């Protein structure tokens, strides 16, 4: 937005400068034309009224690089042709300034290029403006709306027949009007651009500040669906966006609550007949068929409990707390090692993170259970960087084919198709772990180790 505003300002300035320069050049030339005509008329009257022996000295003193003056017995040949519109305009103005006796012998020729005597006069030369003199303001007032009549001329030649029969010849030139831009123009553009940039920064930040609030709220919603709603402030569009966002968050909360209540009720309704079946089976004589049926009921009970835990998503309700991850991981490893499991941890320094320790314990426990179930051993390593904390768990199992690494995070998906508890459980362990990790802004990835086995990597933002 700032670049668009600044580009518009620069383009408008350049166009305005171009128009201003064109008008300025035309105005300067027009004023110079009037000034040159006035100077010619004054010199003609002066020389005509001066004594014969003074005329040559006056002519020599009046001639300069911008106005060549000379006396001749013959008029200028280039002033004898039929005059065009510009010639007639100049001749008419000069005739108004001359006495009637001199006006009758006046001939003028105007051209848009410099003649040979003035070919060396460059832009902004030292003689620029000398023709205008102190009479320029007067001529500017005299011009009025007719400024364009002499705006395009570059040189003028005039012949005036004096009362003694001699001809006074003039050759006037107008140098370039100077550079088209000036440092004042550049300074003005820079100052106005700076003002526009500062005003745009203030305005754009004021308009888009609520958008940052919505962005942070969206990130927070990805970790905690029960986060407080955002304040509906700012422009009308931002207020509408905040309102829609809060409504969306409220709908998500209602959906999750409904799902949890539905699964809790379903779990209760399923467990009641399962309990009755278990009681009836236990009352039967001990037989191999009865034991199998009791095992199937136990599997169903475990699956129902896992489904309910997955639906409740405990990570969304647990408050954040500053936690020593090193101590938390060591406690999990020590508990499992005390139970006779082959679990170890690489020693590391204390790492503090604001997290949900209960949910994190559950994620690490699920990953360690998988590592022990398929790889027999598990080694935990904690790595910390300024932006990320990584918990890596290595095992010595067969690994996972690359095509299956994403599928194992799907609920109820198992590489081994049976549902037997002896071969791996319900297929919800990794799905629950990934759900909790994502609720905390993290991610779990699985990597086959070059030396054999699988590495499960839990990455958490610091």
Please tell me about this protein's structure.
By secondary structure, the protein is an alpha+beta fold. Helices cover 52% and strands 14% of the residues. β3 and β4 (167-173) form a beta hairpin. The model is unreliable at 117-151 (pLDDT under 50).
Keywords:
462 residues; alpha+beta; five-stranded mixed β-sheet; four-stranded antiparallel β-sheet
Give a topology summary.
Blueprint: H1 2-49, H2 52-62, E1 67-72, H3 85-97, H4 100-103, E2 106-111, H5 136-143, E3 155-161, E4 167-173, H6 183-223, H7 236-283, H8 288-312, E5 321-324, H9 325-338, E6 343-345, E7 352-355, H10 357-375, E8 378-384, E9 388-394, H11 429-439, E10 443-448, E11 454-461
Parallel strand pairs: 6-8
Antiparallel strand pairs: 1-4, 2-3, 3-4, 5-7, 8-9, 9-11, 10-11
């Amino acid at each position: 937005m700032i670049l668009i505003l600044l580009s518009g300002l620069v383009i408008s300035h350049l166009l305005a400068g171009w128009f201003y320069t064109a008008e300025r050049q035309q105005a300067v030339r027009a004023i110079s034309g009037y000034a040159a005509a006035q100077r010619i008329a004054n010199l003609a009257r002066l020389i005509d009224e001066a004594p014969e022996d003074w005329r040559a000295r006056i002519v020599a003193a009046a001639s300069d690089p911008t106005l060549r003056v000379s006396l001749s017995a013959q008029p200028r040949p280039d002033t004898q042709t039929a005059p065009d519109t510009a010639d007639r305009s100049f001749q008419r103005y000069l005739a108004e300034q001359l006495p009637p006796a001199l006006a009758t012998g006046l001939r003028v020729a105007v051209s848009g290029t410099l003649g040979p005597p003035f070919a060396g006069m460059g832009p902004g030369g030292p003689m620029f403006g000398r023709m205008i003199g102190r009479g320029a303001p007067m001529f500017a007032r005299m011009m009025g709306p007719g400024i364009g009549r002499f705006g395009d001329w570059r040189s003028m030649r005039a012949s005036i027949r004096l009362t003694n029969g001699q001809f006074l010849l003039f050759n006037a030139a107008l140098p370039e009007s100077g550079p088209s831009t000036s440092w004042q123009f550049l300074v003005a553009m820079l100052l106005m651009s700076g003002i526009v940039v500062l005003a745009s920064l203030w305005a754009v930040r004021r308009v888009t500040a609520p958008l940052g609030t919505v962005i942070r709220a969206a990130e927070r919603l990805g970790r905690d669906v029960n986060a407080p709603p955002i304040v509906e402030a700012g422009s009308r569009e931002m207020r509408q966006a905040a309102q829609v966002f809060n409504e969306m968050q409220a709908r998500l909360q209602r959906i999750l609550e409904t799902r949890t209540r539905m699964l809790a009720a379903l779990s209760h309704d399923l467990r009641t007949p399962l309990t009755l079946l278990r009681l009836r089976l236990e009352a039967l004589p001990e037989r191999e068929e009865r034991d199998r049926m009791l095992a199937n009921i136990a599997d169903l009970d475990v699956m129902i409990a896992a489904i309910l835990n997955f639906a409740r998503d405990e990570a969304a309700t647990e408050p954040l707390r500053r936690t020593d991850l090193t101590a938390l991981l060591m406690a999990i490893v020590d508990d499992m090692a005390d139970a006779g499991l082959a679990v170890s941890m690489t020693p590391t320094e204390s790492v503090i993170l604001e997290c949900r320790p209960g949910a994190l314990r559950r994620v690490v426990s699920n990953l360690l259970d998988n590592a022990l179930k398929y790889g027999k051993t598990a080694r935990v390593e904690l790595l910390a960087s300024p932006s990320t904390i990584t918990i890596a768990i290595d095992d010595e199992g067969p690994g996972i084919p690359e095509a299956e690494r994403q599928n194992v995070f799907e609920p109820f998906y198992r590489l081994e198709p049976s549902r037997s508890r002896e071969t791996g459980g319900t297929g919800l362990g990794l799905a629950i772990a990934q759900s909790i990790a994502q609720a905390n802004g993290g991610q779990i990835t699985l990597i086959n180790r070059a030396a054999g086995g699988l590495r499960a990597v839990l990455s958490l933002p610091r």
